[in-house]
Specification:
about 90 residues; alpha+beta; 4-stranded mixed beta sheet; 2 helices; elongated
């Protein structure tokens, strides 16, 4: 299997519930150099920083640009159905 396929299968195996999916995504973001933030605390944002905010079954990740006076945000909500591959689909 290719590296992509192997990683996708690992991701699907870990996402058995919304909470597990967020936990798996947190691990991925940490591996990519993102820093966790807490909603209850002031955000210590820096130019070039990469951050994420886990909140139950929701996860917000964003990066602050080096040059610009703005940032981009990507957000996901891991509601049911979770990430999974059904062996057989149909009625």
């Amino acid at each position: 299997m290719s590296d992509f396929t192997t990683e996708l299968c690992r991701w699907l195996e870990r996402g058995v519930s919304p909470y597990h999916t967020v936990a798996a995504a947190e691990g991925f973001l940490r591996e990519q150099g993102f820093t966790a933030l807490r909603l209850e605390e002031k955000f210590p944002l820096e130019r070039g920083g990469k951050y994420y905010i886990p909140h139950g079954t929701a996860l917000i990740a964003f990066a602050v640009g080096q040059q610009a006076d703005y940032f981009r945000i990507a957000a996901a909500h891991t509601d049911w159905p979770c990430m999974r591959v059904k062996p057989a689909s149909g009625p």
